[in-house]
Amino acid sequence: MSLVRVVFLSLAILAGATGQYGYTERQTLQLRSSYDFVIVGAGTSGLTIADRLSQALPSKTVLVVEYGKIEYCPGPFDPPTNWLEPADSASRWVFNSLPSPEMKNKTAFVTVGQVVGGSSCINGMFFDRGSRFDYDAWTDAGGPEFARSDVKWNWKGLFPYFKKSVKFTKPSHSAAQKYGYTWDESAYGGSTDISSSYPPFQWADQPVLRDGWKEMGIKPVKECAGGDKEGICWVPTSQNPVTGRRSHAGIGHYANVLPRANYDLLVNHQAIRVVYPKGPQSGPPVLEVLARADGTIFNITAQAEVIISAGALHTPTILQRSGIGPASFLLTANIPLVLNLPGVGSNLQDHSGPPVNFNYTDFPSSLFPVPSSMLNATFKADAIAGFNETPARGPYTLSLGNSAIYVSLPHMSPKYATIISKIRKAVSSGIAASYLPSEYQSIPAMVSGYNAQLLTLADLLSNPEAPNLESPWATSNISPATTVWSFLLHPLSRGTVRLNLTSPLAQPLLDYRMGSNPIDFDLHTTGVRFLRTLLDTPAMKKYGATEVSPGAAVAGNETALVEYVKDQIILSFQHPCCTAPMLPKDRGGVVGTDLKVHGAKGLRVADMSVSPLLVGSHLSATAYAVGEKAADIIIGQWKGH
């Protein structure tokens, strides 16, 4: 089908290792009449796939359709911010979820990238991977069908793609000596232009908490990207090791890729839906898009495949507009049913958690610099100058930090077995289904899939080497109180992403349903109690650490502590996933191990929506690995065609 004449817009994007900004302009005055591969979403996974396909299959044409534009993507604390407040960001979508009744009707505040580069353009640049057990759990949740599959998404099957997806630069000898950085280069090895590195700066009080964690018995891990993660971790940053600037997919998989005759990018266009004129087995489908500049709607024809890589919040929306999703919801939305896949938009998961707050009453002024030093005009001016040097130096190279603890449930509480027993009993008694959204409680596939997930999580949580709590930090000296956060890495509650029925092209409605599985409260309170023991360590007592909340009285009463969790919890640490899960259809799955949508010819999904279970890490590194593995699967199918 021929296309309207459009102009492809390409704007400024950062470039070289010298720290200067370059501009790349790639214009096409007219789209081709058709493409072999059409990728929806120029995000972390989508651009990875586009780069790899256009390189490996030079005779095939690749088009990426992106809602946003090309922008410069600053780090979270780039100048001129004072580091105590976030910097301006590249464009992003901002969501406020529906209220979660079990959390006193709190809403989740969620942002995702609306820019070429996707969420790799706006995240905190914390570049960690999950433990090997997180990814092994993906296969376990898929049951015998996935265990028999030739395509493995366990740790062994993903680790080569983690290595391929990033170029690691070890820190300088002086920085390693000064801060105690540790690493193992065998966990890396790629030459991809996505950078992973350690900054040449840490706040002077960063070791205070590290000492406290050690005194709690948490052991340092030399390298946490190699699959073994339980302990104290140094975590690299997704940044250029010379300039200190953000490294993201818009650079590594587009701007720094030499122009290819078969690789096009169409920005400022919204993918509305995929259309199967003759039914879902007649694919590949046609992609219907909206030009945001003038409201024109037109079709793009794919000869080989359409690959949806719009992220965990937008991929299910596109599928639902296409008539692919839960039949009951599509009926309500007055959308003709193409494929009844109730898992589309189900299974929403994210990291959440409450804080433990304390003050230092005897913090030495000799520890310099700390974040409050940025309030000194002379110090801040030098910090800005340092960020613009080559190589960059100083506080602005730090981003959100490089340190975190990752602790398993057995190492948090000797009563962990009671929680595991609760999970297993909820499945065996049949009560687990009542924790699902009401529309899923009578669908056998959704109940079966959720039960399988819970049993997989019970095994995972009982493993002393599999972390279930994260607490990241960069400093101890942020006024008025210091906070250590308890990130619940493997929640049991499940939410939904649904098309907005009053405005189908607007942003979807998120229902996080946090706390809908009450066992999550056992996990939250266990994490809070564990973190409170930090204040009993000699390192904390040395500086007069005094607890602000929750306090001994609250922590000693389970009912009161649950109320504290409800009052203080952050419902989203910006890691939504799992809304088009890679599971068998009879377990509520949307895609198989080949990432093909069940029953839809010529249609795949490849982004963090395919993760069946939330991993115990920030999601950027996993999203790159998913893109790399997806590209390999697709190339393997089409090589020689």
TrEMBL record:
<feature type="domain" description="Glucose-methanol-choline oxidoreductase N-terminal">
    <location>
        <begin position="311"/>
        <end position="325"/>
    </location>
</feature>
<dbReference type="Pfam" id="PF05199">
    <property type="entry name" value="GMC_oxred_C"/>
</dbReference>
<feature type="active site" description="Proton acceptor">
    <location>
        <position position="618"/>
    </location>
</feature>
<dbReference type="GO" id="GO:0016614">
    <property type="term" value="F:oxidoreductase activity, acting on CH-OH group of donors"/>
</dbReference>
<keyword id="KW-0274">FAD</keyword>
<dbReference type="InterPro" id="IPR012132">
    <property type="entry name" value="GMC_OxRdtase"/>
</dbReference>
<keyword id="KW-0285">Flavoprotein</keyword>
<feature type="signal peptide">
    <location>
        <begin position="1"/>
        <end position="19"/>
    </location>
</feature>
<dbReference type="InterPro" id="IPR007867">
    <property type="entry name" value="GMC_OxRtase_C"/>
</dbReference>
<feature type="binding site">
    <location>
        <begin position="44"/>
        <end position="45"/>
    </location>
    <ligand>
        <name>FAD</name>
    </ligand>
</feature>
<dbReference type="Pfam" id="PF00732">
    <property type="entry name" value="GMC_oxred_N"/>
</dbReference>
<dbReference type="InterPro" id="IPR036188">
    <property type="entry name" value="FAD/NAD-bd_sf"/>
</dbReference>
<keyword id="KW-0732">Signal</keyword>
<feature type="active site" description="Proton donor">
    <location>
        <position position="575"/>
    </location>
</feature>
<dbReference type="InterPro" id="IPR000172">
    <property type="entry name" value="GMC_OxRdtase_N"/>
</dbReference>
<dbReference type="GO" id="GO:0050660">
    <property type="term" value="F:flavin adenine dinucleotide binding"/>
</dbReference>
<comment type="similarity">
    <text>Belongs to the GMC oxidoreductase family.</text>
</comment>
<dbReference type="GO" id="GO:0044550">
    <property type="term" value="P:secondary metabolite biosynthetic process"/>
</dbReference>
<protein>
    <submittedName>
        <fullName>GMC oxidoreductase-like protein</fullName>
    </submittedName>
</protein>
<feature type="binding site">
    <location>
        <position position="115"/>
    </location>
    <ligand>
        <name>FAD</name>
    </ligand>
</feature>
